[in-house]
Amino acid sequence: MLRRLLCLFVVLVFALQSFPAYAGTSLSFQTGQFSYDQVDLALGSRAPIRLLRHYQSPSTTDNTKVPNGPFGKNTHLGLWSLTAQLTSGHVRIFLPTGEETNFNLYSGSTYSNAEADDSLRGTVTLSGTKITLQLENGTSLIFNHTSTSGAQQLTQITDRFGVSINLTYTGNNLTKVENSFGQGINLSYGNTSYPAQITQASLYRNGATLSGPYLVKYTYDSSGRLQYFDNAVHNQPVNTLDSSNKITTRTANGRTIYGWNSTSNQLSTITTPRGIVQLTNTWTNNKVSKQTLPGTSTSTATDDIVSLYDYYGTGDSQNTKVTDAYNIYHYYYDAKGYLTSESEEYFNTSTSYNFDQNTGLLMSLTNARGYSTSFEYNQPYSIDYHLSKITDSNPAITTSFDFSGPYGQLKSVSDPNHNTTTFAHSYNISSTVTGLLSQISDALPSYQNFTNYNSYAQLLNSTDGVGRSTSYSYKPTSALGSQDLNEVVGPDGIHRKLDYDVLSRVKQTYRTNSSGSDTTDITNY
């Protein structure tokens, strides 16, 4: 079961206008387990690629070990870190969080989920050493590179339309991730003390490393823990205006600094390139017991945001008291680790929860006023669970859902007044590329028709209920594009256009009339 994490804050760090890097932290109120995620590099296109860096402190309740990873101990690359292995009649897929999902043989060389509460669900097939996990939406994860441990590493992610992302290895180390359009990320390993840890990552197009700020670096301490992350603008020249409004050039600081407990692998501080200590963790018994965030003033600590965490109970039946500047909250969990209730002291209110003990699905909740909401699910169409009904007690109303469309898509939703909106998925590009949305209709009646797609399953035309048409066009690979949306023409005849760089990131947006003679609303990025 994937742990339910409550997010405390999200930081958006800009490295040039077109190069955002996203970071966020989470803390499990049940286990005291801390996680940190950051996207260090990204490119767009029909097959976008994101270099995700994840750190996670070890669980203190279920003994799940996060393996030593490409950015130090207890780190991984998200989906790219999945591995699979055939062992004694079943297939095990190892999650980068340290957990695993088992698939049991049920027909021929096909395997299905062994447990009802598996977080990763699909159908597994074997072909020689190749292990393929197909998800309900038609996406395939292919594992076909044998590591030194004998497990198969992820080598390809392909959607049902044939667009893929390929992963290349040298030994056990992932060295390249590339999409169908020749865009990708190179990963380098230059730390002799820790040869499995990434020291540099760079973007490229058609095999050529790009000039400019498209490279990030990682530096580790003597224990192999990440000490510095240098983003793409670190040490790059940047023009700024001085107090006299004169242009001056300075060297940008793009370095994030990570502080650790001296005797453990517990992340204690994150300091931004501006020198602001963005987060401070205090650890007690291997759990986060206190977190400090900067207030509105970054130069003093008088208005810092402080949260205290007090854990009590045993095993998964862990309860937690959270104290912040405004209130005191209590969270209670059962023996399987499911949240049973939460309360707050200021208004003396509580909410209770009921989770199915086999599937882990939320079945009902009761709010502070005693009103309940129940949830029903079905599984007749595929291996995934789907929400089928939400019922409120006060007033007594029901909303129903039908996910029987191909690939688990929503087929209809009926509101409490019995008005139904339906979704038809009957547009097929070929005999193998099927199930594209063709129409949305509601009870008015009103229709939105989707009348044409290209071979990449991208919409070309749509028409509303009164016959007004909108068309879409995309920049092809022959023009150094990657099937990026570059023009939308609405019923008003105005052409809305987008220009991209070679990594499919928007450089400019603007509008023109039908002849192209009048350009307005230009925005550069």
Give the end-to-end Cα distance, rounded to a whole number of Å: 41 Å
**Number of DSSP-assigned strands:** 45
| Rg, alpha carbons | 26 Å
Low-confidence stretches: 1-20
Portion in strands: over 45%
Arithmetic mean pLDDT: 87
General form: globular
Number of DSSP helical runs: 0
Question: How many strands, which pairing sense, and closed or not: the largest β-sheet?
Answer: 8 strands, antiparallel, barrel
The residue fraction in helices comes out at under 10%
Question: Widest sheet: strand order?
Answer: 6-7-8-9-10-11-12-13
Helix/strand/pairing class, anyone? Answer: mainly beta
Structure, described:
The protein is mainly β and 525 residues long. Among the domains are: 6-293, no CATH class; 468-525. It has no helices and 45 strands. The protein has an eight-stranded antiparallel β-barrel with strand order 6-7-8-9-10-11-12-13. A five-stranded antiparallel β-sheet has the order 1-2-3-4-5, with no helix packed on it. Strand 7 and strand 8 (100-107) form a beta hairpin. It is globular and about 65 Å long. It starts with 5 loop residues before the first strand and ends with a strand. The model is unreliable at 1-20 (pLDDT under 50).
